Amino acid sequence: MIRALSHPPLVGNLRELRRDPIALFERLRAECGDLGAIHVGPRRLVVVSSPELAHEVLVAQADAFEKGPTLRRFARPLLGEGLLAAKNETQRRNRKLVAPAFTPKRIALNAALMAEEAERAAKRLAGRDVDLCEEMMRLTLAILGRTLFSVDLSLEAESARVALETVQRHVESLMKGLVPIPLWVPTAANRRTRRALAELDALIARLVGERRRGGPERAPDDLLSSLIFAREEGEALSDREIRDEAMNLFVAGHETTAFALAWTFHLLMSNPAAAARLDAELAAGRDQYAEWVLKESMRLYPPVHSPGRRVARELVLGGERLPRGTLLLVSTLLLHRRADLWPEPLAFRPERFADERALPKGAYLPFGLGPRNCVGFHFAMAEMLAVLRGLRARVRFEPLPGKIEPELLVTLRPRFGLPTRIRASG
Q1: Which of 12, 21, 204, 273 is least surrounded by CB atoms within 10 angstroms?
Q2: How does DSSP classify residue 12?
Q3: Whole-prediction pTM
Q4: Domain 49-424, what fold?
């Protein structure tokens, strides 16, 4: 029988989940082991925190699981039936349309654009005090616009960032709420969310409309053109399907990368020896240590911290029977902080990744694993390397006073941002 944390009736572990979710998950593993459960109101969530069980869920028995219904239910107005929340069959079909945008050849062609945007950001930021999270969101949105949509989103970057933040805060409040309030109820928060959704939809509709009017002959060879003009099994995607996939790539293609970069720069500010080695390696034209830095940052602060699944057919996991309909989380955060896998797990040590092959399968999951892993993870790594090179060569970061506290929303982000002073180098 799967052990569960003790909890008050009705509300379950909801108060602790809202107050300090990281502490809640750490207590869960300490008291219940690698397969435990918490309660969010009446809902039981089984939590996996061992490499072997994570591999079972995400790879070996992946076809026995569907995407978690919580994200599908509450994020549906934003994500629709796109890759992030689609059922397995839809996800497999649409992944084929999206995948060509992330081939090594296409990524190499986009490398110059990534470097250009990093240089533009360095010039814009030098001499300013900023919230590093907001600035990384602007930068990754600019890169996404030019590489995947072939447009300059600099004018829309701030309004789009705020709109996405509004919608995602709304989704998170529903996911953690005891009695979720439907979006059609005319509360002040719902009205703000509907306005934000309308703004994002209008942006996607404008990009799609402009591309359609140009026709396939004049269309650039990018992700947006693939969605609009490609045909799968003889049929083109509907307008709604194009909107959903474009929105999913719009959301996932810049936010997770932005927070991974923000945490990376924060860790480098806190570890001057690692920062000095990184600068020396980059100056010598070597990227290996930079890759280790990024991987270690995503170990400590994985942007996607707990991918959810729903059991689609009864199965046995870790010796326990899970009936159809069981809700399950794979806790990437707990996996990445296990002391038996990562000695002194809270220490920032990029050198851990000198022999990544020694890790057991399922121990390191910043981009997921198996058939539903992140389709753009090679693109994301190339983008982060380009930003790391571009900014470290031109500016220096200094932390400003402020409380640094992780917050588990849809992504793992700093609750109060990352106040930072940026100076031109040299």
Answers
A1: 273
A2: B
A3: 0.93
A4: Cytochrome p450 (1.10.630)
